[in-house]
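Q: What would this chain look like folded?
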Amino acid sequence: MNKKTFKIFVDFDGTITLRDTGDAIFSRFGETEKVNEIIKNLLQDKITAKQCWISLCNLVNYVDKNELDKFIDTIEVDPYFHHFAEYCRINDHDFYVLSDGFDYYIERIFARENLHDIKYFANHLDVTADGKLIPSFPYEDSGCTTSANCKRNHIIDKSSDSDYTVYIGDGNSDKSTSVFCDFIFAKDDLLKFCEKERITFFPYNNFNDIIARLEQLNNKKRLKKRYQAELRRRETYIME
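A: My prediction, written as structure tokens:
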């Protein structure tokens, strides 16, 4: 039996971490009521993800960098994520972290967890000397409104029609992105979205569940790609 390799794309907040780091930071250092209103507007498609992040950063008048770092250090990762990263390495599965959050806390969390070699794409955040949060968006695309870091583009750029593509996520920024992949692992809001839209997916609780399912997929004699995902990828190729 030929061993299959997968091209895997993984969300960060609420997927690799046990809670949404971005939401947690702004709830801690901003005004909770206003934070919740901004996020509500995003979820109702009243504002874009970029507008959401800019508004949230503007809410924070001052943040002590040491306090911010200490708070980030309280964010835990899925206890099976290390196992998953090693599993991908051993089996030659390329995987990329696609986050609509910020590199500032991703770098700190990965360094703490000794996960220095993981490839990721995220929005950028500067913490100034006077305690301001300044966001920037190196991977933005006007066609991607639910993620300021256009996850769709990374999937298109990093995969081909010959790849078996996998998406792992949980939230709003994953909804319009996961549909470009052949196999979707979903929980929380992404799971509800897939159920509502009748999109085939695998539910999961942690990365151990994902490893077990990938093993099952690998052992299939014939692995069928998701036709709708192929169509979406082709449409995007043509548009570009």
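The two ends are 37 Å apart (CA to CA).
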